[in-house]
Design brief:
The protein has helices at 19-24, 31-45, 55-62, 66-79, 88-99, 108-119, 136-149, 159-162; strands spanning 14-17, 50-54, 82-84, 124-126, 155-157. Strand 4 (124-126), helix 7 (136-149) and strand 5 form a beta-alpha-beta unit. Helix content is 51%, strand content 11%. The protein has a single domain (11-162), classed as 5'-nuclease (Rossmann fold, 3-Layer(aba) Sandwich), CATH 3.40.50.1010. The protein is of the alpha/beta class and 166 residues long. The longest helix has 15 residues, at 31-45. The chain has a five-stranded parallel β-sheet.
Length: 166
Amino acid sequence: MPARYNKTVMKTLKLYLDTSVISAAVDEREPEKRTITRRLLAEIKRGEYESFISELVTAEIDRAGQKDAIRLRAVINDLNPERLFMIDEAKVLADKYVKAKIIPARYINDAVHIALASINDLDVIVSWNFKHMVKVKTKLEVRGVNTLMGYKEIEIYSPLEVVKNV
């Protein structure tokens, strides 16, 4: 007789949502991305995942135009993710990613997103940023730096790879 899987034993994954995910939830220029993102956010709201954002996400949203910022804040308020705050440890780790040429220096915020998720022991960074984050080179090299620095390996995926009900 096959073994039964007990859903109560499964750990709820902790997801760090970067700004690209919040933005995609309201972006009318890319309806497929918006649909996938909204499905993921619905799964989070149903308790299938724990969600986290950082003060960097809110700062990036505040730099959007006023109309966009209002819509993006509404997404965050509706989701009610746990908020992470910048600490020196995150700055040090982000600098390691830049010095290792994983993330270009001019995109330090991408390194900070990864560092904040890493130091807070989250499981997955969710991003639509295929240029610097959601790519094999970045994933492998971040894992290497994290291991050397004593942090656990972290996964970096697009919402398409995380959402259960595509």
